[in-house]
Structures are given as C-alpha cells and as structure tokens.
Amino acid sequence: MKPQLEQTEFWVGTFHGSHDGIPAEVTATRDDTRPQPYGWTCTCGASRSFPTEQGVWPTAWRHTHPTRFDRLRSWAARRLRTARR
Is 59 within 8 Å of 19 (Cβ atoms)? Predict the structure, then answer.
C-alpha cells in the first residue's frame, strides 16, 4: 500500500525492514518543488533529502537494514543517553 503523498510528490519506491527490533518502512519520493527533489521518509520519523537520485537508494536501504556497526553505534548512543539521566 502506497502512503498518502502530497499533491506535488511522486512515489519512487518503498523499503521494508527494521531497526532496533521494530518494523520500519521507508518511502522514497520525488518532489520538483523542493530545492533537493529526492528524499525518503521512515515510519519512525526520520527523513533525508538529496539533490540527485544516487543518494536516496543506499541511505534508505541502510536505514531499514542497518549493518552490525550501525546497530552497535545505536546501542552505544542509547546507553550514553540513559547514563546521563
């Protein structure tokens, strides 16, 4: 199912995966009214924009399919936030 897009946005692709054990879905779009027309938005609330199409695919894939290093970095950041409180 395609997400609800703005009238100026065009659906480019969807990536399904997870991060932190929670299912996530990233939707890649193109919007020619923005300075950086290509971008993706995740169901977790994260989003990024790019001037060309080349940056969208690898970053959207890596967001939904994090490497072991990405998972370790995320774990360490959560531990540091918890320790500071």
Answer: no
